[in-house]
Each structure stands twice: as C-alpha cells, then as structure tokens.
C-alpha cells in the first residue's frame, strides 16, 4: 500500500488516534471538518487496509512493575531463525522482536521486574536455546522518546 493512497484527512485522523486512541468520532469529526459517520467510515477503511492494526493502551512499564527495559541483538543460525524467533515471541517478557538485516539477527525488547529476572531471562531463555550463536544486550537508562511505530 502506497502512502499517496491517503489524503490529508486520513493523516489527521491517524495522528489524532496515535495521540489519543480513546478520542470519540465526534471529536475527530470536529478536528477534521467531516461528519461523525464519515470519520467512522474512514477509520473502518484504515482498519480494513491494515493501516490500523489494533487499538491498545500504552502502559508505563516502570509504573506497572517492569523496571528493567533491555534491548538484545541475538544472532541465530539461519536454519533455526524462525523457530527461535517464534519461541522468543511467545515469551511474556519479550515486548517486541524483529528480524534485522545481517546474517541472521533478531532485535528484541525485553521488560522485566528486576536484574534477577533479567539474569534468569538471559540464562534460561537465551543461552539455553539451540541455534543462538551470540547475544548482545543494552539496558535502557532513560527514555527520551518512544514512537510506538508511527512518527507524529
């Protein structure tokens, strides 16, 4: 799907939904200058086209008890990439996981309660998995910006 398939009204609707996913159709209609029904139709169209994948709450992980946020670069033997990625994706501590360019690299964001849980995740969930050849980690000290998949 090409970005030129969307007009300025669609872009404003998406921007507003990213800012506040709970905004009402009425409020959106007032902001973009179209009817509530037209806003609903446009949102449904964006959903059907796969532009909007779902509506969700953005949680402050620290306030929810997940105080350690770490990123991992995980190199995997090519023949095991899909199985390892799916195994890690099923782990509740894994917030996101992506296949990256390069040999066979997964980029992963992990949220855990404390360093003891991080150590257990590394030892039990990474080092014990067949096919993983290298693990590199970085712990977030301070978050300045988090886009949640869309640039405002």
From TrEMBL:
Keyword DNA-binding on this protein? yes
- BP terms from Gene Ontology: response to amino acid
Q: Name one GO molecular function term.
A: sequence-specific DNA binding
| SMART domains membership | HTH_ASNC (SM00344)
Look up keyword Heme and say if it applies. Answer: no
Per UniProt, the keywords (alphabetical) are:
DNA-binding, Transcription, Transcription regulation
Any Pfam family hit: HTH_24
Q: Which GO terms describe its cellular component?
A: cytosol
Task: State the CDD domains in the record.
Answer: HTH_ARSR (cd00090)
InterPro entries, A to Z: ArsR-like_HTH, AsnC-type_HTH_dom, Dimeric_a/b-barrel, Tscrpt_reg_AsnC-like, Tscrpt_reg_AsnC/Lrp_C, Tscrpt_reg_HTH_AsnC-type_CS, WH-like_DNA-bd_sf, WH_DNA-bd_sf
The record places domain HTH asnC-type at: 6-67
Q: Please state what the protein is called.
A: Winged helix-turn-helix transcriptional regulator
Source organism per UniProt: Halobacillus litoralis
């Amino acid at each position: 799907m090409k970005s030129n398939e969307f007009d300025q009204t669609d872009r404003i609707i998406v921007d507003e939904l990213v800012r506040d996913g709970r905004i009402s159709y009425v409020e959106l209609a007032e902001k973009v200058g179209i009817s509530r029904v037209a806003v609903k139709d446009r949102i449904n169209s964006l959903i059907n086209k796969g532009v909007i994948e779902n509506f969700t709450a953005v949680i402050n992980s620290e306030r929810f008890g997940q105080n350690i946020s770490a990123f991992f670069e995980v190199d995997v033997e090519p023949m095991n990439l899909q199985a390892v990625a799916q195994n890690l994706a099923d782990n509740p501590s894994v917030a996101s996981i992506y296949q990256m360019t390069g040999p066979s690299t997964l980029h992963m964001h992990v949220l855990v309660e404390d360093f003891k849980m991080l150590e257990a995740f590394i030892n039990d969930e990474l080092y014990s998995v067949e096919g993983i050849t290298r693990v590199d980690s970085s712990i977030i000290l301070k978050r300045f910006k988090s886009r949640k998949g869309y640039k405002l």
